[in-house]
Amino acid sequence: MKYLLIRNCRIPCYNPQELFSVLIGGNKILQIDKNIMHPAIDTREYDAQGNIIIPSLTDAASSFGESQVGDDLSKLALNDIEAGITTWITPLTTSAIDKNSVALEHKADHILNYSYHISLNTITRKFDAIRAKLVVLPKGVSSIYCKLSTPLSRDAMDNINFLLATAIDLGTTVVFDIARGGTSNEHISGLLNVASQIEADHKNRVYFLNICYEEEFEILKRMQENCLIGAELRYSPIPRAGSTLKEFSPERFATILRENPWCSAAISKTPMREYGISVLPDDYWRQNQLSILYAVLAKQNFTIEELIDVTSTRSSKMLGMWPSYGRIDVGADADLIVLDDKYAETFKLRNSNGADYEISMLGKINGVIMNGRVVRDVDGVITNNIDGRFIYRRILF
Fold first, then answer.
1. Whole-prediction pTM value?
2. In the CATH scheme, what is the code of domain 55-318?
3. 344 pLDDT band (50/70/90 cuts)?
4. Nearest-5° angle of CA 269, CA 52, CA 339?
5. Among 73, 85, 247, 323, which is disulfide-ready with 80 (CB 3.0 to 4.6 Å)?
6. Which residue has the higher pLDDT, 321 or 290?
7. How far is CA 84 from CA 120, 339, 347, 376, in A?
């Protein structure tokens, strides 16, 4: 077994003012103490230099699709490592489930769910084929992953109902990823149609991703007691152009997270060009989402412990990964972020319409430890060796 010994780190859930050492064996945390001796010759030391160690981000919208099998898959994975994200969903289409599962297993680092990724348009066209695939899935398959776009046809609604009924039979859940093409009342109408179908008899079977608007949250709040496992809220650092819906203010975003433990937090990953900004790369929000979230929530008096809760712990619990993920303790998986929590930066942007925006960042990722290995240091990703394993989540009900 290979060991990693992290020295000189602070751990928020322990005494954050004192320095600790963390011993990792394989992909598990074996020991946390102030002084730990080398357990074996085959031990690498990593000096955290007084930085904080936190669990990796759990971003349930980080996923692999059929078109991403190949060289692009590795690039996508490395971009997520930059952001401190070490788990992914495998959204496989029915045509890809057989030919791509082996390729994904060898190319993807940590795959959160072995799931079907079924767009509603595909369902409408190939309903019989999809029905045949779903009914032969084994009990306990981790989830059925469904892209929810609008407007919704009657056939699409029928297929949603079939997915929900299948989830009951399989003992699993349906993950609805809301397509961000909808920024109008038509989008809300489609979501209301889905809500009306699943409130009655699908208790604790639904998880919504990509909730960006107040109107969406209010719909889910009405559903929460009946059918929701949880929802992922996304904050937009810059308002979207052309939206008729109300985006979360920083104050409202923080209040919702505090009052609703079934909600987790992430940053909108809308490409920069859609905001009319060309001076930053499209993946900028993604790479810096932890720092931006920390700055937004710190202004609302969120502590680092609360930041960990809403970016990692809650979603790990809702997605069935707890207690292996979303915490730092003996027995947990060694997927960790080394965070310089004293780093702060504020800069201004101007969009194509001449509007100025101020973006604040708090905290900087100086290292990422994935599967017990250091894969990113202060200078960036240090390995191109993508070699991981499937993670089948536990069903919580």
1. 0.86
2. 3.20.20.140
3. very high
4. 30
5. 85
6. 290
7. 31, 10, 22, 9
